[in-house]
Q: What sequence folds into this?
């Protein structure tokens, strides 16, 4: 990678709409600012603040978090560091998963839990309304319509500006849209895992933003020979290639890579300006 490559702003990726909100099409996932397994806080609090400060400097104006990250610690960190929030910043959070211990993620879509979860997020983020509140995962023990119906009520009460869903099928997305307007879907998607291709296609058809979580697919996902060859041709990191591929994959794609490193953050943002050639995209198809 060229050490002297110029720093690019997230705006180079273009913009995307979330209802009546417009954000740059490269966001930041804050989960990795938690401790291991997204549990607790990291010891170096100054580093957390440096990363979030650099997020703003690099033109990232969409930050994704959840009440289950920490749990609760991630939302608290964002408010401690960024409040009062600069104009134009969209903080998106999620509810519907609980953490009984550091290795467990348990669905809880009961309406009473979602009401408490939303109020907790509002309090920790120091907001009166969440710009984008996402149902984190369908609960197999609770009818999906009941969970979404509770969130639709909270939206009508003025506590939620826009609703999104996460970890859903096309059928669940369709069901959610019959209950309330949906502006985003957040499913796992990366070069290695394209199992949500049908959900992405539905989002393209409907004009709904698609937020790929785990966008790099882990270390194995960015170390294949094909990605290494393309990275070498462009003199960039394999991570930058993986993110540029996502941006090229669909105009509704809104990647939200996370990191605890300013250096990695800067490299991720450079992906906003990386244009892969048709031959590159064919190699990664």
A:
């Amino acid at each position: 990678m060229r050490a002297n490559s110029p720093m690019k702003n997230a705006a180079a990726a273009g913009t995307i709409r979330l209802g009546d909100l417009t954000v740059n099409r490269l966001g930041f996932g804050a989960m990795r600012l938690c401790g291991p397994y997204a549990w607790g806080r990291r010891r170096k609090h100054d580093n957390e603040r440096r990363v979030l400060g650099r997020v703003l400097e690099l033109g990232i104006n969409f930050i994704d978090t959840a009440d289950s990250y920490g749990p609760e610690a991630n939302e608290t960190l964002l408010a401690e560091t960024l409040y009062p929030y600069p104009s134009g910043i969209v903080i998106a959070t999620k509810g519907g998963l609980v953490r009984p211990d550091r290795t467990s993620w348990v669905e809880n879509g009961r309406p009473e839990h979602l009401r408490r979860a939303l109020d907790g997020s509002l309090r920790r983020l120091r907001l009166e309304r969440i710009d984008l509140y996402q149902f984190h995962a369908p609960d197999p023990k609770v009818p999906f319509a009941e969970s979404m119906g509770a969130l639709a009520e909270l939206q009508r009460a003025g506590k939620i500006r826009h609703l999104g869903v996460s970890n859903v099928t096309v059928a669940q997305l369709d069901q959610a849209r019959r209950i309330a307007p949906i502006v985003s879907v957040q499913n796992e998607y990366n070069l290695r895992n394209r199992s949500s291709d049908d959900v992405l296609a539905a989002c393209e058809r409907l004009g709904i933003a698609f937020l790929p979580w785990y966008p790099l697919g882990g270390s194995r996902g960015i170390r294949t020979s094909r990605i290494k060859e393309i990275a070498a041709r462009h003199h960039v990191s394999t991570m930058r290639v993986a993110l540029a591929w996502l941006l090229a994959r669909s105009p509704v794609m809104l990647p939200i890579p996370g990191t605890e490193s300013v250096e990695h953050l800067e490299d991720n943002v450079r992906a906003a300006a990386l244009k892969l050639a048709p031959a590159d995209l064919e190699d990664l198809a």
Notes: Residues 111-125 form the longest helix (15 residues). The chain has a mean pLDDT of 95.
